[in-house]
Amino acid sequence: MTPAEARGTLLAGSHVAPLTRALLAYWSCMRGKVLELGVGWWSTPLLHGLCEWGSEELVSVDDDPEWVKALGDIYRRPWHHFISNPDIRDLTYQHWGLAFVDSSPGDKRVDMILALKHRVEVFVAHDVEADIPPSAGAYGWSRLDGAFKYEYVFKDVRPWTAIWSDSLDVRGLFR
């Protein structure tokens, strides 16, 4: 899907509530840079606004240069960086407060999370029901079963969004 085709799709925004809540809960007790793995018309403006308000650095990365250009032309600032085609190993040299994972192709998401597990305090991942029929995904989310001390899956709206952390108890974010 191109950036123009994706703009305005309603279901793509099902991660807004859990992403916002996770970031605000994290900031209530800790501070840290934010990593966006997969830019989009919902997550990039949301994270941009929250990080501007919270005075935190935001790094948005995507494998598709067209997406990076489309969103970077609008949102790039001295504190908001855009990177195209990153080597995930380069991202493991830094500590991240929160990482939002909504990259394409989806089957790379679990590997990214595992590669960054000890460098990120809180993960928020979109489309976590993609492996459950009738969905046609093969993301391999089950590989993360038991990988984190705390887990919460926001199922109020599809696609589902998961929040994982070893340091922040995310289980009570939505009561």
Report the top-level CATH class.
Alpha Beta
CATH superfamily: Vaccinia Virus protein VP39
Radius of gyration: 15 Å
Counted up, domains total 1
Contiguous helical run count: 6
Beta fraction: 15-25%
* Biggest sheet statistics: 7 strands, mixed
In short:
With 175 residues, this protein is an alpha/beta fold. The chain has helices spanning 3-6, 16-29, 43-54, 65-75, 88-91, 109-116, and strands at residues 34-37, 58-62, 80-84, 96-101, 120-126, 150-154, 161-165.
Structure, explained:
This protein has one domain: Rossmann fold. Helices cover 30% and strands 21% of the residues. The protein contains 6 helices and 7 strands. It has helices spanning 3-6, 16-29, 43-54, 65-75, 88-91, 109-116, and strands spanning 34-37, 58-62, 80-84, 96-101, 120-126, 150-154, 161-165. A 7-stranded mixed β-sheet has the order 3-2-1-4-5-7-6, with helices on both faces. It is globular, with a radius of gyration of 15 Å. The mean pLDDT is 89.
How would you summarize the topology of this molecule?
Blueprint: H1 3-6, H2 16-29, E1 34-37, H3 43-54, E2 58-62, H4 65-75, E3 80-84, H5 88-91, E4 96-101, H6 109-116, E5 120-126, E6 150-154, E7 161-165
Parallel strand pairs: 1-2, 1-4, 2-3, 4-5
Antiparallel strand pairs: 5-7, 6-7
Give structural attributes.
7 strands; 7-stranded mixed sheet; Rossmann fold; alpha/beta; 175 residues; globular; 6 helices; 21% strand
